[in-house]
Amino acid sequence: MARPIDELTSYLATVYDLDRVAAVLTWDQRTYMPSGGSNSRAQQLTTLAKLGHQYKTAPELGQLLDASEASSGDLDEVERALVRVARRDFEQERKLPSELVTELTHVTSVANEAWQAARATADWALFAPHLEAIVRLYRQVAEHLGYREHPYDALLDQYEPGMTTAHVRSLFNELQAGIVPLVQAIAQQHATEDDKPLYGHFEPAAQLAFAWRIGGEWGFDQQRGRMDPTTHPFCTSFGRDDVRITTRTFADYLAPALFGTFHETGHGLYEQGIDTRLGRGPLGRAASLGLHESQSRMWENLVGRSLPFWKRHYGELQAAFPRLNDTSLQQFYKAINAVQPSMIRVEADELTYNLHILLRFEIELQLLEDTVAVQDLPQLWRDQMEQLLGIVPRNDAEGVLQDVHWSHGGIGYFPTYTLGNVLSVQLLRAAEQERP
Ligand code: ZN
After folding, report:
1. How confident is the model over 72-110, as pLDDT tens digits?
2. In the annotation, is 264 catalytic?
3. What whole-number distance in Å separates Cα of residue 289 and Cα of residue 156?
4. How far is the CA of 415 from the centre of ligand 1 (A)?
5. Are 314 and 329 in contact (CB under 8 A)?
6. pLDDT-derived band of residue 1, with 50, 70 and 90 as boundaries?
7. What is the number of alpha carbons within 13 Å of residue 125 lying toward its C-beta?
8. Which residue in the list 60, 69, 132, 264 is annotated as catalytic?
9. From the CA of 73, how far away is ligand 1's center (Å)?
10. Are 208 and 249 a contacting pair, CB within 8 Å?
11. How confident is the model at residue 192 (pLDDT cuts 50, 70, 90)?
């Protein structure tokens, strides 16, 4: 007779496969799919999501979990972890009423379109009613999922299991106290020409070839992964042996192809590095988004912007782009590490980046607590930007409307970026201590 754990493992592999199939469709949607395909693709993805939800909440899964838990004395470490994580997923999935899930899917898909229009015209009023609906639904999600101290805990926990609002708040207090005075001091003595060497003509194909070669040197297995062009770079995985990174180039600006690709390569290395024993099931996923981000930020910032790295590779970069022959290694190093308060989070430098996250974290808390009205967010955003970074957006497109996350319902997601930054530094320091 098959052991319950073996049946559970095989059941969870089916669920995993459904999710990976959806990932293939999403990757294609965001890289090569012709725009005419968008309706049928949305239908296919909805069908897969429905099937996945049925599998993830089926009574049969509950029985397999019960039986596996009853025989947990016979399980090895990996099997016990599998049962623990699968149990957690199962309980979470079942806590949300299906009408709420359906309403969320609908509200966020409409909201995303409204957000695009609102951002294009810098018109907050177009998006505000949608965000009000999203916040109202996510308060319900938090109540269904349950939490100990703050409703935000429930949302944060979906991306960063076990993390609490109180913990994130104390982390931000420490970061803010250290970073704000540093940013002010740098802003006063800043030379705005610092990053000039990164602008000018750079052949896109050569940018991609350079970044791809570096990824290979870092251990990204090019037989188990690919790189393709997209508008908003991301990394996705169809399993540890087929990991897709995406990137974009600008013919007149070198930084995005370099650091964007380094970033996604870091995500890709994490996916390719998952232990084969954890493979086809919930243990084959990232442990948390913060951990995932720690790998991308480590390769992008701690390695990719470091002097030792460029001492080794700057000659190759100059060979690919002879216009850099007039830029010394020191000048280049300074260019890629320029610090300057700026409006847009995704373009922010390493130092100011976490302040952009802090701003969003505080706004999300106030939204869930109902201590700020959605219509007042643009003003709150401007006030906070001035306080944290000393600059004020000229309009809402470069202010409160800049990020896609809220329109997708991604409340509780932003702190994982800062957790990733902090973890990356801790991990690199530990690695340096172990192997100086
Ligand atoms: Zn990332």
Report:
1. 899 999 999 999 999 999 999 999 988 898 888 888 888
2. yes
3. 10
4. 12
5. yes
6. low
7. 0
8. 264
9. 39
10. yes
11. low
